[in-house]
Amino acid sequence: MKRLSSLAVFCFLLTAVSQCSSNEPQAPEQSKSVSSEENRSEEQEAKEQSKSESKEIPEIQEIDISATIDQKMALAGAEVFSAKCTMCHKPSENFIGPAAAGVLERRTPDWLMKMIMYPDLMQEQDIVVQKLIEEYNGAVMPNQNITFEEARSILEYYRTL
Ligand code: HEC
User: Fold this and answer.
1) How many domains does the chain fold into?
2) CB of 112 closer than 6 A to ligand 1?
């Protein structure tokens, strides 16, 4: 009888131990799922990186700025400006965006061409633009698919202000 009860105790212990050990594999499994999550976010990061790499701001072809203002080009620029920009930019006062006047003293022609043609990419990648967004209460300039010629003529218009 004693033997039987000790056998029962043994059996009880055995099941307790086996239950205990059956719990054990759960721990590594949990840490495995965490590490696979880490892998996933690493993959996502890599994907996002390659996405932003593929959206590099295109180089602007070299532009000639003549000593005298090309009035015809400036007029064409004024027209594009009033059609696509004046809802946010005034010639000489800050509005939703900065005033147009004086912009050539603040920025290089190359930077301006990029800002006019690719404002969305500049917002992502240019620290100066990111600071402007803060200054202008989070307002962002939309990409309106301005062509090289249009942007170049706006630059000439800026020279008349
Ligand atoms: C919906 C409003 C909006 C429109 C439309 C818009 N802009 Fe802007 N622009 C902004 C804002 C706001 C900023 C400040 C940067 C930012 O927040 O993206 C800015 C910044 C700029 C800058 C930089 C100014 C500086 O002082 O460095 C230039 C240049 C510019 N815009 C030119 C243009 C031209 C040219 C057009 C038209 C083709 C245009 N913008 C259309 C809102 C606009």
Assistant:
1) 1
2) yes
Q: For 90-96, which contacts have Cβ atoms below 8 Å and span 24 or more sequence positions?
A: 91/161, 92/161, 96/136, 96/139
- 144 in a domain, yes or no? yes
Look at residue 75 and tell me if it is in a domain. Answer: yes
Q: Which domain holds residue 97?
A: 71-160
* Rounded CA Rg of the chain: 33
Residue whose Cα lies nearest atom 29 of ligand 1: it is 112
Q: Sorting pLDDT into bands at 50, 70 and 90, what band is 11?
A: very low
Q: Is residue 86 part of a domain?
A: yes
> The domain that contains 137 carries what CATH number?
1.10.760.10
Atom of ligand 1 nearest to the CA of 122: 18
Exposure b/e, 41-58, CB count within 10 A at least 16 = b: eeeeeeeeeeeeeeeeee
Computed over every residue of the chain, the mean pLDDT equals: 82
Position 20 pLDDT exceeds 50: no
